[in-house]
């Protein structure tokens, strides 16, 4: 069996330990020769690496985990690079959230102005990662990218590094599929969906469970409960207030627009007033992550270094890690598993432009994705998608050209921002907040 060198780029992420656990769970099929963590933040990565090494010691004690900030070390001969970079760290996420909320608009890391700000920080670091892989990695390397905001990053790479071996993915649709499975009382692997849109901007057109069409059954449920089972409504483990609000908004959107089932992120675009009213500028989602998951990760690292026992299962959450590992496994072993991925349109959705960056089902082979054709889509959904795709395209052009005008046009087009005057004031503030991260806009 062929073995592989796998690199996690963004090794200092609090998600890394969970991803590694999912890799080890699949090691009977996806044989790991070398596992490397790479990050530019050495101090943070070293803290997370303590937890990762504890996971590996428990489940694969013979596997040597390497930790580095040297790209030549990390990427030399690499077969698969899992990219989860967060340019500016959680501190800049919080800055984006707070700045947006001060202007009365959605403060969110991937949607609206926060997502555009994050995207503008991430484009050239992602180019650098591609260049490292071109220089050092194995000739048939694959970057499996789930760095946010995935839509903007993917569109930029299609333009700036069109020959890169990079596959862009997002775990949010899979998280929704997992909720669908819970609602239906089946396993995630039993679910197969048809879907179209952009990343964080798409619709489930049909859902099958073990081959049976359950779309109408799910629609009826989601209009009442959102993407959560009746049983789970009383489960304290899922009573995260932010997710409760998100699920409630999914019910509203499903009731208003009954053709398809929405991605949960549509709440920010179709109900921005409700989202802003709910959001707390003194307790943003980024602040919650810093005071929650990050704090727990660093505390665990310190405890392990003191020789204390730590419950590592607290870091094995959601389908985030499982999804990325499944995609890598399908690429590595030519399994042709069906996943939702982000690709250039090129006729997949017939009445959208070829250069739109769409999220659709595809069969994942060792040569890359083979997308499933969608055909034409109705005018309402086409209009939504064209507007958002234009917004994201203008952000990419603003970064490449250093164009203030195009950045302003992008902010003005975005559905989460109510007017051109608000767009300008917000953009000007974000320029100040992102000095050193964004190119100069003129």
TrEMBL record:
Annotated InterPro entries: Glyco_hydro_4 (IPR001088), Glyco_hydro_4_C (IPR022616), Lactate_DH/Glyco_Ohase_4_C (IPR015955), NAD(P)-bd_dom_sf (IPR036291)
Cofactor: NAD(+)
Record Pfam families: Glyco_hydro_4, Glyco_hydro_4C
All copies of domain Glycosyl hydrolase family 4 C-terminal, residue ranges: 195-416
Cofactor: how bound: Binds 1 NAD(+) per subunit.
Keyword Manganese appears in the UniProt entry: yes
Alphabetical UniProt keywords: Glycosidase, Hydrolase, Manganese, Metal-binding, NAD
Similarity field: Belongs to the glycosyl hydrolase 4 family.
Record's protein name: 6-phospho-alpha-glucosidase
Organism of this sequence: Collinsella ureilytica
Organism lineage: Bacteria, Bacillati, Actinomycetota, Coriobacteriia, Coriobacteriales
